[in-house]
């Protein structure tokens, strides 16, 4: 009796779920090789519903097969579910992209002063079962205005974190942590018509002054008092080319500086022990917070630091993915299955966000009405 009720709920709610998918999602299943007709899966919908049992509930492949059979969705073995998931990698990625573009990447309105979108860029590693290192890397971009993902990519561990993994539109402001602070990435964004705002490093950006001499970072920082914001013109040296920008900094309070130094010392000792001495300049730099940006002086240094302060939103996004949807540990070592699983988890994350947005913003019933039922012809004749 319970399973009959579950089956009824599936039938009632399934059209609501599919209303958030791209309109041609079933045709794409065939085109991208995810679906070919077999008796177990009479249509692409049955295949997707079965895969979602595994992706949403975290069921094993064997339990997924049992639930699908008891719910009347598909009569399939656990091995068949594994094979179907493996073949569905590109289809799941395509649907995730479609949900993101349709529901989450809304028409952008100018924020002002030459910026169309403020995008927070970050990456996160995902491990295979028993792995002691990085197995996969999820690259993620969040639009600060909507707090929704506007671009993502799943790569192997050799593909490092860089702005080059993302498309740049004119007027975009790409914001990232220290690992994104390098000359080639800055040049890539600027060539695309965008702006950069990154947490700067003491080395790596090849900063020079107006005369081409190395930028004296520490001499500038030492002039700051607590609460004072520094703002200096700098250039990034990229080959024979120089890209103009600004170096903005603020001195931390004594408590914040000491906490940062303790953390750096603890991480250094854990990694190197007492074999390697910690660079004194690293400890000195911990007493300041500094960024590099290509934004012009219509933005004050204080505004720039305030904008960067919103970067923590992407950290929250990764916490939601890893804690709620359990996108942190893979269940399969097969590369094709692992990539399909990741794309499926991202699709689920986008569907959840889209459904919540629709429920809050679009209608009291919580989904999009795509087709309006035409009046009954007999009713029209009667009138």
Question: Which key terms come to mind for this protein?
Answer:
single chain, 383 residues, alpha+beta, disordered N terminus, nine-stranded mixed β-sheet, 9 strands
Structure description:
By secondary structure, the chain is of the alpha+beta class. It folds into two domains: about 1-95 and about 330-360, no CATH class; about 110-325, no CATH class. About 45% of the residues lie in helices and about 15% in strands. It has helices spanning about 1-20, 25-30, 45-55, 60-70, 80-85, 90-105, 185-190, 215-220, 255-270, 280-285, 300-310, 310-325, 335-360, 375-380, and strands spanning about 115-125, 135-145, 150-155, 170-175, 195-200, 205-210, 230-240, 240-250, 290-295. The protein has a nine-stranded mixed sheet, with helices on both faces. A hairpin with a 2-residue loop joins strand 7 (about 230-240) and strand 8 (about 240-250). Helix 3 packs across helix 13, helix 4 crosses helix 5 (about 80-85) and helix 5 packs across helix 13 (about 335-360). The protein starts with a helix and ends with a helix. The model is unreliable at about 1-10, about 105-110, about 360-365 and about 370-383 (pLDDT under 50).
